[in-house]
Specification:
Blueprint (H helix, E strand, L loop, with lengths): L5 E3 L4 H9 L11 E3 L7 H15 L1 H14 L10 H9 L3 H20 L11 H4 L10 H11 L7 H15 L10 E4 L14 E7 L3 E6 L2 E6 L3 E3 L4 H17 L6 H10 L9 H13 L11
Antiparallel strand pairs: 1-2, 3-4, 3-7, 4-5, 5-6
């Protein structure tokens, strides 16, 4: 056990000088140092400390849970049109930052529920948790237990978490078998970056080692292969979906009326590669309304 801290005895400069001046050997002068006794924490203080530490550790978790409730209940609707605008104006944080916190809260809950009882160390900030988003929820608790072991009882750094996650991904990753132009369905799987896109069709525009860049009805996004499921369309059907995607992309913008956005979104989630006669008429009407010049062949 470390020795208790010691404090020098308060002694005036004149007194010290006087003692030294009367000493035949100034180097032999001794200055008394009084020890300060540090009282042990009472049981109540220990309890208070633990409670306050838990609050600090869970601050990001509480923030993520609060943001999720604000979004899900649309409690921002009296002042803002979108949740993203609300977060920017009210909290000064981007859409990405808000969704990172919300996802971290979900993962924290998952770890609390599923980690073994002997794992007492939990994440203390969103940056620690972020690498775990690349893993499926059922693997996250196992990964965190490895993280705690690697940190040897200390709060793990982002780098330790990232290294453990990378090793798990290298061990479990399935090779990418998707092809350019292939039509897939997006699977959200607790990825906040894909929120609202579950079930959307997506056309593969770039194939990476473990991910694909896909084009959807409202833009492009890069996702891991675990977030894609092939629609098993024929080449001609993939071309039909590609043509539909091009048509919608020419129209879509954030400034569109809500009704038009909803219609385009519904077309972006079709589970077939063609439009019905009514859907074709509605899309053509919107194209005409917004002055879109039709140079793309219509789906048959």
């Amino acid at each position: 056990m470390n020795s208790p801290p010691r404090k020098r005895k308060a002694t005036s400069a004149s007194s010290i000088n006087s003692d030294i001046s009367h000493s035949e050997d100034p180097a032999s002068v001794t200055i008394d140092v009084a020890a300060v006794e540090v009282p042990e924490l009472t049981e109540q203080e220990q309890s208070d400390r633990l409670l306050l530490e838990r609050k600090v550790e869970r601050a990001f978790f509480e923030a993520g849970k609060a943001l999720a409730e604000l979004r899900d209940r649309r409690l921002y609707r009296s002042t803002h049109g979108t949740f993203e605008e609300y977060c920017r104006d009210r909290f000064g944080q981007s859409r990405r930052q808000s969704y990172y916190l919300m996802e971290a809260a979900v993962i924290f809950d998952n770890l609390v529920e599923k980690c073994e009882r002997n794992v007492h160390i939990l994440p203390t900030n969103e940056w620690q948790v972020r690498p775990l988003t690349k893993l499926d929820p059922d693997i996250q608790p196992e990964a965190w237990q490895q993280v705690v072991e690697s940190a040897k009882g200390k709060v793990p750094s982002h780098r330790i978490v990232k290294d453990v996650v990378q090793k798990i991904m290298e061990r479990t990753q399935v090779p990418n078998t998707y092809q350019l132009g292939e039509v897939c369905q997006i699977l959200v799987k607790d990825n906040p970056e894909l929120r609202g896109m579950g079930g959307c069709w997506a056309i593969v525009s770039h194939v990476g080692e473990f991910s694909c860049t896909v084009k959807t009805w409202n833009g492009e996004v890069t996702v891991g292969v675990q977030h894609l499921k092939s629609c098993e369309y024929l080449p001609s059907e993939c071309e039909q979906v590609g043509a539909l995607c091009d048509r919608i992309s020419q129209i879509y913008s954030d400034s569109l009326e809500e009704t038009v956005k909803n219609l385009l979104q519904s077309l972006g989630k079709l589970n077939r590669p063609y439009l019905t006669a009514v859907e074709e008429k509605l899309l053509s009407l919107i194209e005409g309304e917004y002055g879109i010049i039709d140079e793309i062949p219509r789906n048959s």
